[in-house]
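Figure 6 in text form: structure in, sequence out.
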């Protein structure tokens, strides 16, 4: 019996089966897939460009919107922090008082006295009756003192810090003026002048 693998007819059949072309719909499917990938790429590029443009426009706006959601408390804290972030050379001139006037206000309790120094220095020693509204933690301290501050919104408020080259008292005073407190002044001599005069001092935190 002849071997079927040696039959020339079988060779022809095999050759025909090997050379059979791809289905007619395959090139069209590949073309369609490429178009989809290309369109998705263009959409992604357009989205990235739009996002970048939006961020640039928002950042350059006078009132930029927060990119990440913030609670009302977080937004308020951010606004408070911004109020005391001005460089010293941009600090507007505020009313000032001397040692005698400041001492009189402290002893008569005719004004709300605020210490703008960091809490560490405040706890080591401060003017009797003063409250700590630190410039470097203004938002936190302001919320803690909100009740006292609002009760004194129309009363005299005197802010002090270390004195000398310290600008914290002016920054805090101007922030309070921006928040609607109308009678705010600065004791420029600060804690240094008060201590040098040998006047009474208190220690510890006050809340």
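Output sequence:
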């Amino acid at each position: 019996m002849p071997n079927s693998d040696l039959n020339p007819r079988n060779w022809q059949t095999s050759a025909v089966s090997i050379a059979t072309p791809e289905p007619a719909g395959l090139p069209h499917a590949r073309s369609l897939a490429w178009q989809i990938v290309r369109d998705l790429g263009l959409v992604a590029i357009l989205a990235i460009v739009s996002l970048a443009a939006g961020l640039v426009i928002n950042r350059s706006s006078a009132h930029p919107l927060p990119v990440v959601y913030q609670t009302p408390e977080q937004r308020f804290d951010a606004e408070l922090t911004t109020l005391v972030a001005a460089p010293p050379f941009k600090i507007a001139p505020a009313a000032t008082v001397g040692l005698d006037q400041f001492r009189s206000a402290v002893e008569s309790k005719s004004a709300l006295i605020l210490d703008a120094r960091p809490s560490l220095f405040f706890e080591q020693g401060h003017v009797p009756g003063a409250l700590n509204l630190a410039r470097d933690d203004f938002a936190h301290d302001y919320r803690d003192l909100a009740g006292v501050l609002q009760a004194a919104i129309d009363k005299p408020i005197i802010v002090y810090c270390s004195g000398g080259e310290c600008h914290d008292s002016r920054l805090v005073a101007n922030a309070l003026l921006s928040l609607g407190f109308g009678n705010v002044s600065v004791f420029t001599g600060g804690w240094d002048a008060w201590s040098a005069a040998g006047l009474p001092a208190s220690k510890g935190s006050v809340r």
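Caption detail: The chain is about 50% helix and 10% strand.
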